[in-house]
Amino acid sequence: MQASKADTLKVNNILSCQIGPEISPEQFIPEHFFLYLLRGSMKAFDGNKHYQILPGDYCIARKNHLIRYTKYKDDNQFEKIIITFDEPFLRTFLERHPSQTQPSHTDDSFLFLGKNKLIEHYIHSLEPYYTGNMELDEAFADIKREELLMIILKADPEMAGIVFNFANPAKIDLTAFMNHNFRFNISLERFAFLTGRSLSSFKRDFQKTFGTNPGNWLKKKRLEEAYFQINRQSRKPSDVYLEVGFEDLSHFSYAFKKEFGRAPSEVLP
Question: Which parts of the sequence belong to the HTH araC/xylS-type domain (predicted)?
Fold first, then answer.
């Protein structure tokens, strides 16, 4: 999922040349960001929960979460505003505005904000930048980010426990995590980080747990899931390969035939 650079406020007016839904190739959220949808719609899935985002909705996308989303254009247009709350900005904000934080009791990847006049006025103040040719310089961008975060924290003080949590993911059980998240197309470094390990300890623990290396296990697990969806659920290979973690249909078809002795189309019921 593409977010703005760490030190900027990014106003995106995205016009895609493709008609219909698109699936994002990026499936890891590296920094918290505020999302406001201007036009089009989105459906997202984080491995646990499905989300729908419609025009006029706004939410916080949560750092260190896995997400896959599909964009639907309206009249061939998909327009959004993304404002990133990266860690350096948040630490500076916290120095200026000390805040009491409480641990969050939700693990949702998208935290929807209730309708708020101040947020809507804030979005309106950005209109010259996303409808015209004006650009935000870095200093003013930080002021606008600070303004937005102050509005959000005033409306929902519990959000402080989420955005100001700078801890890395804790070490967790590999079996449960990998069986739940193998479909996400992220690097081994990401998997290691999200399970609270260095890459070397992740590979070592993985070998002990599964009896094979992560690359082989992921490929086999994804192919088995693809076989199930095609053979048992009558889904088309072209609708399956991205969902199970492959980037390229031809590579998926080659790997599938090598694993099962038949092409994906040949196992359709």
Answer: 172-269
Say which CATH number the domain at 159 has: 2.60.120.810
Q: Which of 142, 163, 184 is the last residue of a domain?
A: 163
Structure tokens at 108: 């949702």
Give the per-residue pLDDT at 126.
86
**147 shares its domain with 115:** yes
> How many C-alpha atoms does 36 have within 13 Å on its Cβ side?
22
Segment 256-266, tens digit of pLDDT: 999 999 999 99
How many whole angstroms separate alpha carbon 215 and alpha carbon 124? 47
Q: Is 4 within the bounds of a domain?
A: no
What region, left, alpha or beta, does residue 197 occupy, with left being phi > 0 and alpha being psi -120 to 50 degrees? beta
Q: What are phi and psi of 142, to 5 degrees?
A: -65, -35
Cβ burial of 9 (10 Å; 0-12, 13-18, 19+) is buried
What is the distance between the alpha carbons of residues 42 and 189, in angstroms, rounded to a whole number?
A: 28
- d(C-alpha 20, C-alpha 40), whole Å: 11
Question: Are residues 181 and 96 both part of a single domain?
Answer: no
The predicted pLDDT at position 34 comes to 94
Residue 66, in any domain of the structure: yes
For residues 193 and 143, membership in a common domain is answered with no
Determine the Cα–Cα distance for residues 144 and 227; give it in Å rounded to an integer.
49
What CATH number corresponds to the domain at position 235?
A: 1.10.10.60
- pLDDT digit string, tens, across residues 138-193: 778 889 999 999 999 999 999 999 999 999 999 999 999 999 999 999 999 999 99
Q: For residues 67 and 44, is the Cβ–Cβ distance under 8 A?
A: yes
Among residues 32, 29, 144, 151, the alpha carbon closest in space to that of 88 is found at 32
Residues in the chain: 269
CA triple 122-123-128, angle to 5 deg = 105
